[in-house]
């Protein structure tokens, strides 16, 4: 049976148009701002340009103005968008908005979709996802969730501290995960709440200074103190938050991989161009064996990453949880993409660490990917545990 990994004609056309849009429109803006933009005016200008080019919101259904791509279709288009740090922002597929749209479309009520999903999908507003907490709260172990939500008259009162909440500054609403039953350490009892930005009980504590800077709205510490929300702010069902999070988790891991794979390709292209033109020791840089090895290893890491992404996306598209496939892909891609960018810096030498190209910025942006969405060590533990569990069942 033949295996065809190429996208269908409609997806291929959208990917090609996305690549052209990123190169012609987005990269000049990226270079002007050195890859870091936190201006809502620039965001809106880029998103309007993407709408005009017909490449905006490829992931949401046509009902909300998108192209309705499945996960395999997203892989092709998101990689092209990720060729620039600002490409995902322009197409409205940047984290955390892209993952939130996916989850809202899957589990929100009709009223919640109109109030939150529609303006988010059109780029009218942004959003964030408030899960991670300062130690000893939720982080790599979601079951450590400590933020509490207690029933009050006509609703819920949320109390707790969240941090590293990407995009929280200026977001129109927050999806907050809070414990509604059980104790920290329990794997159940969480509920998701939709919290409007103007809720007086939710306050920005500070912007956290981090290695990466390109994700719009920064990484924020939030305080929930007397944050009262109505009953219809519950997203999905009470006590089912961890189950609903799985709707977001696997696909969001893969879309992170897709976007950063685009940056890996960009870094490789910069390095190859440099190796082809730079002359030293009487020959081109690219004629040196050690440089050729780095270029080849980059190609191997890029191809392997793409293959693992497609495998996981195929499993997600057929309705599987794909927990093992997404964990493997995320772990490999996070480390492979870092290797590609790091080698590109090395090939370019002094140019690579200068501000004349954006390789140094790319390096800072991709390094945290080995930590967020689960650090590599946590994924390796989970991968091994599933393999051992499978072995135990086989010998019974």
UniProtKB/TrEMBL annotation:
Residues 128-208 form the Acyl-CoA oxidase/dehydrogenase middle domain. The keyword Calcium does not apply. SUPFAM superfamilies: Acyl-CoA dehydrogenase C-terminal domain-like (SSF47203), Acyl-CoA dehydrogenase NM domain-like (SSF56645). It comes from Amycolatopsis carbonis. PANTHER family: ACYL-COA DEHYDROGENASE FAMILY MEMBER 11, MEDIUM-CHAIN SPECIFIC ACYL-COA DEHYDROGENASE, MITOCHONDRIAL-RELATED. Belongs to the acyl-CoA dehydrogenase family. Residues 11-124 form the Acyl-CoA dehydrogenase/oxidase N-terminal domain. Keywords: FAD, Flavoprotein, Oxidoreductase. Its cofactor is FAD. Pfam families: Acyl-CoA_dh_1, Acyl-CoA_dh_M, Acyl-CoA_dh_N. This is Acyl-CoA dehydrogenase family protein. GO terms for molecular function: acyl-CoA dehydrogenase activity; flavin adenine dinucleotide binding. Residues 239-388 form the Acyl-CoA dehydrogenase/oxidase C-terminal domain.
């Amino acid at each position: 049976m033949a295996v065809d990994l190429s996208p269908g004609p409609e997806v291929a056309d959208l990917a090609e148009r996305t690549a052209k849009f990123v190169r012609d429109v987005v990269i000049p803006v990226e270079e002007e701002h050195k890859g870091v933009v936190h201006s809502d005016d620039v965001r809106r200008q880029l998103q309007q340009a993407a709408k005009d080019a017909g490449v905006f919101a490829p992931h949401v259904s046509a009902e909300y103005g998108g192209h309705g791509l499945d996960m395999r279709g997203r892989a092709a288009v998101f990689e092209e968008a990720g060729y620039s740090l600002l490409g995902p922002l322009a197409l409205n597929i940047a984290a955390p908005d892209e993952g939130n749209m996916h989850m809202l479309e899957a589990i929100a009520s009709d009223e919640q979709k109109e109030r939150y999903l529609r303006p988010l999908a059109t780029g009218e507003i942004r959003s964030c996802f408030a899960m991670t907490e300062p130690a000893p709260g939720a982080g790599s172990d979601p079951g450590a969730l400590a933020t509490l939500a207690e029933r009050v008259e006509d609703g819920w009162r949320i109390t707790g501290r969240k941090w590293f909440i990407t995009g929280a500054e200026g977001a129109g609403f927050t999806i907050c995960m809070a414990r509604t039953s059980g104790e920290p350490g329990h794997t159940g009892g969480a509920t998701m709440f939709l919290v409007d930005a103007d809720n007086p009980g939710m306050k920005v504590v500070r912007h956290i200074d981090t290695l990466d800077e390109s994700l719009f709205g920064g990484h924020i510490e939030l305080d929930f103190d007397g944050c009262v929300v109505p009953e219809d702010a519950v997203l999905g069902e009470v006590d089912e938050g961890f189950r609903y999070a799985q709707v977001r988790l696997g696909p969001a891991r893969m879309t992170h991989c897709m976007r950063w794979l685009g940056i890996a390709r960009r870094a490789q292209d910069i390095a190859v161009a440099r190796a082809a033109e730079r002359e030293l020791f009487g020959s081109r840089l690219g004629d040196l064996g050690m440089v050729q090895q780095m270029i080849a290893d980059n190609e191997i890491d890029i191809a392997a990453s793409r293959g693992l992404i497609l495998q996981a996306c195929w499993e997600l598209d057929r309705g599987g949880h794909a927990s093992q496939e997404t964990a493997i892909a995320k772990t490999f891609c996070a480390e492979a993409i870092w290797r590609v960018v790091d080698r590109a810096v090395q090939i370019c030498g002094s140019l690579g660490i200068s501000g004349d190209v954006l390789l140094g910025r790319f390096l800072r942006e991709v390094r945290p990917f080995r930590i967020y969405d689960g650090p590599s060590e946590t994924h390796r533990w989970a991968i091994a545990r599933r393999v051992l569990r499978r072995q135990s069942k086989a010998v019974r």
